[in-house]
Amino acid sequence: MKNLSIAGRLINLNSPPYVIAELSANHNGSFETALRMVEMAKQAGADAIKLQTYKPDTITLNADGDEFKIRGGLWDGRTLHDLYDEAHMPWEWHAPLFEHARNLGITIFSSPFDNTAVDLLENLNAPAYKIASFEAIDLPLIKYVASTRKPMIISTGMANQEEIEEAVDAALTGGCNQLALLHCVSAYPASPKDYNLKTIPDMMERYGVVVGLSDHTLDNTTAIASVALGAVIIEKHFTLNRNGGGPDDSFSLEPADLMDLCRGARIAWESLGRVDYGLKSSEQGNIQFRRSLYFVKDLRAGDVITADAVRSVRPGFGLPPKFLDAVIGRRVLVNVAANSPVSLNLLDS
């Protein structure tokens, strides 16, 4: 399963990386902000913008016991229900956002967090689904998404090899026939040193599916580097303002950063090319400046070429330097001037 197609866009090693702008909670409670984010993602060159579809009561419980409280990090001290109540996108926004994106010509889909979210997204004819890292072990949800027969992308943050295998099996046996895995570190933000990008080619070989990267680092270096190792999908959190104060703003890309990512990832992909030892078109004009053999003394017809009469220099209009030893000791057939190239028709046999 080396190919994936979302809304007609083929995703594989032979196509440019598919860049997903993750809107996440960065709407910060403003529908107008969400609309603007769709517009800016399109302008930046992203292939798709992705939402998250849940309600606080579909993702957690309204409880304040210690196990429901976040300790450390960006959201220290908050309960899960409180955080998700702030962060969730109202379901009534989905239809107008889908319409807005389609009018702009950018693909839009979402991460559902329960079956009711899948049902909502099916009614909107979502072209694909994303399973978030924290839900990668929710095999019943994966199977329900797979039953739509739509392309599915699963983030693997925190999942070990066995859990990834279980998720892949649930997707495939559930009816999914287009599957991608995103290598991911579920930390916000994440350190580049934790990403171990060499896992990407191993995932490609081990699971036999399209592989990409869900990147939570603060810049684009890790994401662009992943392209060289075979990542064909790149997902990054996106915001209009990193200092906007929302739950995910601080580790998200601003529009200019997203534009740089889209451009850099595609340049990285183009630079991979193919195995090619031949002369490149951009080198044609410079081949003349390679080294070659030139006479550095005036010689008369019949003179023997001595070691001090010829040198390897630039430009490249004479014999290649590898013939230096074969030239020394031979006679010139005609008069030659210093600073002229050595050629076979000037030498005796």
Characterize the main sheet.
Answer: 8 strands, parallel
Strand order of the largest sheet: 5-4-3-10-9-8-7-6
Name the CATH superfamily classification of the largest domain. Aldolase class I
> Class by helix and strand content?
alpha/beta
CATH architect. name of the largest domain: Alpha-Beta Barrel
Q: Low-confidence parts lasting 5 or more residues at pLDDT below 50?
A: none
Radius of gyration: 30 Å
Total of DSSP H or I helical runs spanning 4+ residues: 11
Mean pLDDT: 96
Proportion of strand residues: 15-25%
Terminus-to-terminus distance: 62 Å
Counting structural domains, the number is 2
- The amount of helix comes to 25-40%
The H/E string reads EEEHEHHHEHEHEHEHEHEHEEH
State the shape. elongated
CATH topology grouping of the largest domain: TIM Barrel
Write structural notes for this entry.
The strands form three sheets. The protein has an eight-stranded parallel sheet with strand order 5-4-3-10-9-8-7-6. The mean pLDDT is 96. It has 349 residues and is an alpha/beta fold. The protein folds into two domains: 258 residues, TIM Barrel, CATH 3.20.20.70; 66 residues, Type Iii Antifreeze Protein Isoform Hplc 12.
